[in-house]
Amino acid sequence: MALNIVLVEPEIPQNTGNIARTCALTKSTLHLVRPFGFEVDDRYLKRAGLDYWHLVDIYYYDSFDEVLEKYSNNNFYYATTKANNTYTDFSYRDNSFFVFGKETKGLPEELLGKNMDKCIRIPMIPELKRSLNLANSVNIILFEGLRQLDFPNLK
């Protein structure tokens, strides 16, 4: 059993490193879609991931379409502040994919428009028009998915 995290064009190496560490410790798979706002040998990326990199099941893609083509039979959920549904409104299954956009812009409007029924958000106060840090958002949503699956392979 596994869950998948997809980062589309991540920009901040520390976020990606922290997310990689979370994926390693939860046996979740990390999918990274180029272009990145950093080099994969970036010292901040490596430092944030600490010595967990060898434990991360990680894949690289040149476009999000490659991810969709490869895993077309799986459930995809798109994290965005623009969703009507919260992340707790769905029942996640083994091998679900949680897709997150770049830190400064989120996911492309066109992608969200095509998938509004699978868009999820984390409730926040609306007045600030801001969102949580990407690594924190990934953790919140990933752990809800893991909770629903009864924390497979975890103790």
Can you offer a commentary on this structure?
The protein is of the alpha/beta class and 155 residues long. The protein has one domain (4-148): SPOUT methyltransferase, trefoil knot domain (Alpha/beta knot), CATH 3.40.1280.10. The protein is 32% helix and 18% strand. The protein has five helices and seven strands, in the order E-H-E-H-E-H-E-E-E-H-E-H. The chain has helices spanning 13-26, 43-49, 64-70, 109-114, 134-148; strands spanning 4-8, 29-33, 57-61, 76-79, 85-86, 97-100, 119-121. The protein has a seven-stranded parallel beta sheet. Helix 1 (13-26) packs parallel to helix 2 (43-49). The mean pLDDT is 92.
- Strand composition percent: 15-25%
Share of helix, binned: 25-40%
Main β-sheet: number of strands, strand sense, barrel status?
A: 7 strands, parallel
User: Based on helices, strands and strand pairing, what is the structural class?
Assistant: alpha/beta
What is the CATH architecture term? 3-Layer(aba) Sandwich
CATH homology superfamily: SPOUT methyltransferase, trefoil knot domain
The strand order across the widest sheet is: 3-2-1-6-4-7-5
Domain count, please report it: 1
Number of strands: 7
Q: Give the CATH class.
A: Alpha Beta
Question: What is the averaged pLDDT score?
Answer: 92
Low-pLDDT segments, ≥5 res: none
Order of helices and strands: EHEHEHEEEHEH
